[in-house]
Amino acid sequence: MANNSDTIIKIEHLSKAFGEKVVLDDINLDIRRGEFITLLGPSGCGKTTLLRMIAGFLQPDSGVILMEGNDISEVPPHRRPLNTVFQRYALFPHLNVYDNIAFGLKLNKVPSAEIESRVRKALKMVSMTDYEDRDVNSLSGGQQQRVAIARAIVNRPKVLLLDEPLAALDLKMRKDMQMELKQMHSELGITFIYVTHDQEEALTLSDTVVVMSDGKIQQIGSPIDIYNEPVNSFVADFIGESNILNGTMVHDREVEFIGHSFECVDEGFGTNIPVDVVVRPEDIYIIANAENAKFTGVVKSCIFKGVHYEMFVETDKGYELIIQDYNAFDVDSTVGMFIKPNDIHVMQKERTCNTFEGKMLADNKVEILGAEFECENCTLNEGENIYATINFDRVELLDNKEDGIVMGEVVFILYKGNHYHLTVLTDDGEKIYVDTNDIWDKGDIVGISIAPSDLHITKRV
After folding, report:
1. I want to staple 122 with a disulfide (CB 3.0 to 4.6 A). Which of 150, 207, 266, 421 is the partner?
2. Do the beta carbons of residue 409 and residue 425 sit within 8 Å?
3. What is the mean pLDDT of residues 286-298?
4. How far lies 441's CA from each of 137, 412, 420, 435, in Å?
5. Three-class SS string for 301-334?
């Protein structure tokens, strides 16, 4: 986090819900003066809601937003020293380019000579010098976005908020505008707060990336840190391509995964501790001579991606890895592979089994997940509060949702090399985690069943 002297915006314990849906859950964030910070995450993660609260368009349910030490939570949008650039531009169709940019200055009764000077400077900065008399409806999407940015920066805000401003542009124009935005930030020296779901865009533009999911901040760091040192499997999976695998930390600097032991640089996990292991596709090296390799595999596919070849390789222990290499290897050929210690990233497991709070019912039944489940050898008394634990691979998902004891929706899928690890959101709002070899799609509605022998019940004190 930034020091107080460097901090322009400080967000403390910010929460927001729409009905029963919690959109932001206890957000704490320091934003440094002059920083380019990006709020990154999938749709529905809360990033735009957070931006709109900073702008003043939404009020928090709890928590405060401080700007230069002053609480601005109740300050209306037009009184805040910041401007917003929207995805849909929000230009005035009846005004030309010049008047669109000058609109805020005229509203604030800035002298005409100063308006002229500031508008022309803004036009120059966004490479639109000869367009001041043009009708905004005659402009391309990229040109309209430049006008929207010029209209925002001409007011000399202390903070510029950008809500997916490049999402409507085609790929080439988006790339060009990314570079221009980075240059503008450097020239202006003001704070940029940028919202996007595009990982590459976030890594390209930002000084700091804030990765969000389900209304919570998952990780804050530089683009390099976020890519090379993800804190959990969500971040590792969301930022770029990854091989995310179950492993065991044998001891300091030695980890076992995909059926082999590897030297690594990680320490402090303990002995024989379950962990998650992340290896980026470009960090697995293929050699034709399998005898000199750490492990071997068979190439299952090889696709040219322009800069590199992308291959899926089935290892000698039955794991599938995605590998990127400048050289192509024939499909069905046996290859050798090795991974350098510095390229293996070990993470604490977020959980090792499902654990739910519930209540003991009569006749060997428990109430969890908003439903009654049968259990075996349940010796606790009726009415007692309990914990129920279930291993990931003992949860059964059913095509016919009515056949399950409860229903749920598949909301997250993670491939672990030889199985899928799913997150299923039940109708009761609980998350249950499932290891399966079956192929499900995100958004599938499934039935959930658990055998009585797979429920382990303990007393909750």
Report:
1. 150
2. yes
3. 85
4. 41, 9, 11, 14
5. EEEECCCCEEEEEEECCCCEEEEEECCCCCCCCE
Tokens read off for 175: 């790339």
Query: Can you tell me which residue has the tokens 């095509």?
Result: 399
Three-state secondary structure call for residue 100: helix
Q: What average pLDDT score do residues 86-114 get? A: 84
Beta bridge partners of 84: 161
| pLDDT, tens only, 165-222 | 887 777 887 888 888 888 888 888 889 999 999 999 999 999 999 999 999 999 999 9
Which of 453, 318, 337 is closest to 391 using CA atoms? 453
Distance CA 162, CA 151 (A): 13
User: Residues 6 or more apart from 189 whose CB is under 8 A from it?
Assistant: 34
Helix 141-153 with 97-107: angle, nearest 10 deg: 20
Q: Are 9 and 66 in contact (CB under 8 A)?
A: yes
pLDDT for residue 85 is more than 90: no
Q: Which two tokens stand for residue 160?
A: 């510029």
Looking at the DSSP assignment, which residues form a beta bridge with residue 337? Answer: 286, 295
Contact 187, 150 (CB under 8 A): no
Token code pair at residue 357: 């709070």
Q: Which two tokens stand for residue 65?
A: 């937003």
Which amino acid is located at 405 in the chain? I
For residue 339 the two structure tokens come to: 């991974």
Q: Per-residue pLDDT for 1 more than 50?
A: no
Report the C-alpha gap between 22 and 40 in whole angstroms. Answer: 18
Q: Which of 86-95, 264-273, 358-367, 416-425 has the lowest mean pLDDT?
A: 86-95
396 contact partners, CB below 8 Å, separation of at least 6: 448, 449, 450, 451
CA 120 vs CA 101, 116, 151, 255: distances in Å: 9, 6, 11, 60
pTM (2 d.p.): 0.86
- Rounded Cα distance, 367 and 333, in Å: 53
